[in-house]
Amino acid sequence: MVRELRPGVWLLELGLFPPLASNAYLVDGGAFEAGPDSLTLVDTGLWWNEPTVREELDAVGYSPADLDRVLVTHYDLDHVGGLNRLVPEFDGPVSLGRDDLDLLERRAHPEWLHHKGLFHRASRRLFPLPDLRLEPLDDGDTVGGFTAHHTPGHNPGHVVYHHEGASAAFLGDLVWAGDDGGLTTPFWGDSYDMAQLRESVAALSARIPRFDVAAMGHGDPLVTGGDDALRALAGRL
């Protein structure tokens, strides 16, 4: 199901129910005077999600060929697996945090006995991604109107993307939607280092510019007061 969160920003709800449900987001930078080459998909869901990311794009009136880029918050299958649904029509760049790109391309070797490290060692062997142009991002890099904020903990290279024109932050799995209408942290078993994740929440809340839309990878995004909700979570950790 597609939902417009504000003009130029759409939620693409991928999957029917947790834990298979995840969010992707489509941002038309042209709505914010970003100029040409500004249609960006943030995250892609799993390849077996129903509806698929391709079907959700079609519901907005776009196809994979219309995308100028894909931004990935982190290398987990429920955020990158849908890349397989975009090819061969999409042939643009895919950007993600440098440390997660090292995981994906087997330059980083997580510990076998670490629950998340074992998952990544298995997933990169068993579930290969299509041959696309992968570009690393570092903290503070900008691309297509987005600023990347390195927020490790859930994954070593987890990135939050802030878009000033859209007044939105694409938070990936740094936070999840809370039961109280605010934000909470992910389940510990799904992260590399929860202490580091909490530090990232606090650091991000102190430095990210103000934003309304809190667009997380799981759960219902907030359309107003996103930065206040992030600071409130940081204060509770």
Automatic annotation (TrEMBL):
Superkingdom of the source species: Archaea
Span of domain Metallo-beta-lactamase: 21-218
Lineage: Archaea, Methanobacteriati, Methanobacteriota, Stenosarchaea group, Halobacteria
UniProt xrefs under InterPro entries: Metallo-B-lactamas, NDM-1-like, RibonucZ/Hydroxyglut_hydro
Organism: Haloarcula salinisoli
Protein name: MBL fold metallo-hydrolase
